[in-house]
Automatic annotation (TrEMBL):
InterPro entries: Catalase (IPR018028), Catalase_AS (IPR024708), Catalase_clade2 (IPR024712), Catalase_clade2_helical (IPR043156), Catalase_core (IPR011614), Catalase_haem_BS (IPR002226), Catalase_immune_responsive (IPR010582), Catalase_large_C (IPR041399). GO terms for biological process: hydrogen peroxide catabolic process; response to oxidative stress. Heme binds at Y372. Occurs in almost all aerobically respiring organisms and serves to protect cells from the toxic effects of hydrogen peroxide. Catalyzes the degradation of hydrogen peroxide (H(2)O(2)) generated by peroxisomal oxidases to water and oxygen, thereby protecting cells from the toxic effects of hydrogen peroxide. This is Catalase. The lineage of its organism: Eukaryota, Fungi, Dikarya, Basidiomycota, Agaricomycotina. Its EC number is 1.11.1.6. SMART domains: Catalase. Gene3D superfamilies: 1.20.1370.20, 3.40.50.880, Catalase core domain.
Length: 715
């Protein structure tokens, strides 16, 4: 019987919205009942369960090539994981340009609004291993590949616009410091240890990034609710050769929102795959994540007009000074078919750019341009990693590189050098699409040094802290206190308190008290400046929407059907996922209504949802169910995490008397009446109410009920 397995090592160079999908399909195996197990080279196998032996109980034979192929492949299945960004998840999508910018760049992908450019976006953490959890406090990688018609363009960025260090020569030091300590490989996926904070305390340039990672930005609610930044200043070059500095931005349409710390800690144990599962499920359900893509542009002649250096990766360009011009939309709309060949083998490189885009002299970027390519050679077994399907560009590739491990391309012809008598392959001038860096004067003495403005490490750290809301400042105090509470060396405590006091005295004072250090004298010279764009709670760039949110509907058999069904309908219309949580897997029933359960009370917690609704019901059994510890804990935990809570019918009295006694007691009278207090929405009776659903949805859009955030979030 002929196998239905297809594996065509051909390249589809067609363009269009699914061009990369068609190309990947050429390397996709469709396996069904018509596919016998075969050896590497196509021989069908009759038995793959028992190795070949000399007698039923005799020794295994060396001639068993099927066993040797199978076990040898297994022995080598694991490739070296990434030194940083090891834990990640990636998704396919497309980029659509809506505003051309020929005044800044000749790059076709940023000028042709008729294109639908395939993209591949990998999210990741930085410090942890591939087996760590999604919700740890960490920077998040935001690496985007545009499969343009002119070649691959990679923006290998983060969800934070700045970095710890200014020069790539310090990269091994910062990563060694934040990784688990070498003598015991502890702790995994966190910087709450002596080495990390020793490095931070002794490296002043980390001050700005230190505040970002201790802010809520380091514990995002979801991949779809975090920014992406190119971090570095790149260069855009237009058709006339004029150069502009540029910072790349991705702003999520769902807004920039975060978990709270206690919630993040619990999710790391309850669901280590929380972020990747959230995005995977959303795409499967057709709720595609979207970002607005924008550029912050500074003409080359204005390079020195700021009190910071554009080449310093520890600095951002405040949007108050240079607005972001949004020019396109990036949408993620397809999950990978198999994790390893796509997500694990994708090789992002900062030096992957296309004509019209160039590099600045940022010393961190310059070093990354070498490091990333060098790393991929080690990880992926040689220089031919570009021939792995996920890494292949959509445009044809011709060059004179040959041989090496895992070479797949077969080149016809007798010349593998240039120039040659056949004139192929040959360079092309810029007018025909050839990449050529625009001439740039370079002069100076070779020296190990940095620009003069690089030495200011306090101004933007103060700008960031000053711009935070009171709630966000409090969260930062708790974050510093938690991390430093895990540090044993009191000398590190002393140095960090001194560093924080340089930024803000109130911050230093609160942290010092929490970690048992003397309060330093108020010698801080805080400039008092703020940015209107940096706060996640009241920043000008923030978006608030119920889309992409999840509501857990907790109920038993004999629930009140009218309010439950009405709320389900309203949530779906608002782009919010309503997920039924019941006492068992399968379904719950009330009269003629049966609802499938996505979770049981044992397989989820309130941490899995953005809000919870406890429905009322009828009968003594329903009352006993409400009084179980799981439901009481769910409500109290959601309340502690500042999430909206809704109750109706018999659950109202239960909430006021048992679940949240003394916290919520609005006076309600009359069937169908709706009231809200401290983010708790109460519907009297078992009827439906449009106001009930609208109130809950409006609270969802605000992300949290911050008025409840009055003290340290404790378990």
């Amino acid at each position: 019987m002929r196998s239905k397995l297809t594996l065509k090592p051909a390249v589809d160079y067609a363009t269009g919205s699914n061009a990369k999908g068609r190309q990947m399909a050429n390397y996709t195996q469709v396996v069904d009942s018509g596919c016998p197990i075969r050896s590497y080279f196509g021989v069908a196998q009759a038995d793959t369960d028992s190795s070949l032996k000399a007698g039923q109980r005799g020794p295994s034979l060396l001639e068993d090539y099927h066993f040797r192929e199978k076990i040898s492949h297994f022995d080598h299945e694991r490739i070296p994981e990434r030194v940083v960004h090891a834990r990640g998840a990636a998704f396919h999508g497309e980029f659509v340009l809506h505003t051309a910018i020929p005044e800044y760049t000749s790059a076709a992908v940023l000028n042709d609004t008729s294109r639908r450019t395939p993209v591949f976006l990998r999210f990741s953490t930085v410090a942890g291993s591939r087996g760590s959890a999604d919700t740890v406090r960490d920077v998040r990688g935001f690496a985007v590949r545009f499969y343009t018609e002119e070649g691959n363009w990679d923006i290998v960025g983060n969800n934070i616009p700045v970095f710890f260090i200014q020069d790539a020569i310090k990269f091994p030091d910062v990563i060694h410091a934040v990784k688990p300590e070498p003598h015991n490989e502890i702790p995994q996926a966190q910087t709450a240890h002596d080495n990390a904070w020793d490095f931070f305390s002794l490296t002043p340039e980390t001050a700005h990034m230190m505040l970002w990672t201790m802010s809520d930005r380091a514990i995002p609610r979801s991949y779809a609710m975090m920014n992406g930044f190119g971090v570095h200043s790149f260069i855009l070059v237009n058709a006339e050769g004029k150069r502009h500095f540029v910072k790349f931005h991705f702003k999520p349409k769902l807004g920039v929102h975060s978990l709270v710390w206690d919630e993040a800690l619990k999710l790391a144990g309850q669901d280590p795959d929380f972020h990747r599962r959230d995005m995977y499920d959303a795409i499967e359900d057709g709720n595609y994540a979207e970002w607005e893509f924008g550029v912050q542009v500074v003409p080359e002649e204005k390079e020195h007009d700021f009190d910071f250096d554009l080449l310093d990766a520890t600095k951002l360009i405040p949007e108050d000074l240079v607005p972001v011009k949004y020019i396109g939309t990036l949408t993620l709309n397809r999950n990978v078919s198999e994790y390893f060949p796509e997500t694990e083998q994708v090789a992002f490189c900062t030096q992957h750019i296309v004509p019209g885009i160039d590099f600045s002299n940022d010393p961190l970027l310059q070093g990354r341009n070498f490091s990333y390519f060098d790393t991929q050679i080690s990880r992926l077994g040689g220089p031919n990693f570009n021939q792995i399907p996920i890494n292949m560009p959509l445009c044809p590739v011709f060059n004179n590189q040959r041989d090496a491990m895992h070479r797949m391309t077969i080149n016809k012809g007798g010349a593998n050098y240039w120039p040659n008598r056949f004139d192929a392959p040959h360079p092309v001038p810029p007018q025909k699409g050839g990449f050529l860096s625009e001439p740039l004067p370079v002069s100076g003495t070779n020296i190990r040094a940095r620009g003069e403005k690089f030495s200011d490490y306090l101004s933007q750290a103060q700008l960031f802290y000053n711009s935070m809301s009171d709630v966000e400042k409090k969260h930062m105090v708790f974050a510093f206190s938690f991390e430093l509470g895990k540090v044993d060396d009191t000398g590190i405590h002393e140095r960090i308190v001194v560093r924080l006091n340089e930024i803000d005295h109130s911050l230093a004072k609160q942290v010092a008290v929490n970690i048992g250090q003397p309060v330093p004298p108020n010698t801080t010279k805080n400039h008092g400046k703020k940015s209107a764009f940096l706060s996640q709670i009241d920043g000008k760039a923030q978006s608030f929407t119920p889309k992409g949110r999840k509501v857990g509907i907790l109920l038993y058999d004999e629930f009140d059907t009218a309010p439950v069904l009405a709320l389900q309908t309203a949530l779906k219309a608002a782009g919010t996922m309503a997920m039924i949580v019941g006492p068992r897997k399968g379904s719950v029933t009330s009269g003629a209504t049966t609802l499938p359960t996505q979770f049981t009370f044992e397989t989820c917690r309130s941490t899995h949802f953005d809000a919870i609704y406890v429905a009322g019901g009828t009968g003594e059994a329903y009352t006993r169910g409400l009084n179980t510890g799981r439901l009481i804990h769910a409500v109290r935990e959601a309340y502690m995490h500042q999430k909206p809570i809704a109750v109706s019918g018999s659950a109202v009295e239960w909430l006021q008397r048992i679940a949240l006694p003394g916290e919520v007691s609005p006076a309600i009278s009359g069937e169908g009446k709706v009231e809200v207090e401290k983010g708790v929405v109460i519907l009297e009776g078992a009827t439906e109410s449009p106001q009930f659903a609208k109130t809950l949805i409006d609270l969802l859009a605000k992300h949290r009920v911050w008025e409840r955030d009055v003290g340290h979030i404790a378990a």
